Model the fold of this input.
Amino acid sequence: MVARLKNLYLYLALACLLGIVAIFVFDGYMGIYDTVYITAGEQEQKIEADSWSEDNGIWWSVGTNWGEKVFFRYEVDNRQFSSYSADIEVSVWRSQQKVLDLLSEQIQIASFNSGLLEWVVDTVELEPVPPEQTYEYTVIIKRGELEQRIILYINYTPKFPVPAR
Amino acid sequence: MRLVYILYGFGILFSVAGIGYLAAEYVRYLSEAGKLISLLLTVAMFAFLGKYFEGLGW
Done:
C-alpha cells in the first residue's frame, strides 16, 4: 500500500509534466495569427505573427522608388473553435497625418480557417520625392484593437535622359 | 559508482537547462490563462516529486 502511494506521487508528478507540455503545445498553437507578405520590386518579405509582439519592439520596413508599386498580402489565420470577425483598416500616414486610405473591410473567418486581403500602395499617389531625398511613410494595419506598423521608405527616382536617335 | 552519480548529475542539469530554455522561449505564445495553469501544474509537479523522494527516504 505504501509502495503504491509512493508511486502514485510519481505518476501525479508525471501527469503534471504532461499537462504542462500539452498546454504549451495546445495553447501555443491556438489563437489568431496574422502574416503580412510585402512585395516591393522583385523581393518578397514575410512578416510572421510573432514578429509583431511588443516585447520584440520590431518595426518592419520596406523600401521602394517613387513611381513603383508595393503589393501587400495580409493573411489572418483563425485557430479557434469559434468563428472570428474583425474590422480591418489599412492606411498610409506621414508626420502623424493620414495621407491615404487603402482598405476598410470586415472579415469573417470560420474556425480553423484563414482569410486573405490584398492591397497595393501606388507611390504615384503619394507626394513626389525630390532629388537626393527619401520620404518615410507608415502603413498602419488595424485589426480590431490591434495596430501593426510598417515603415515605407520611398526613394527619389532619377529621370534618365532618353537617348537621341 | 561515483562516476554514475556524476553522469546522473550532468543528465539532470542538462534536462533542467533544456526544459528551462524551451519554457522561456515559448512561454510568450501562451495566453494568460495558459501561463497560470502551467505555473500551478509546475508547483504541483514539484510538490508531488518532493513527496515521492520523501517516501524514498531522501
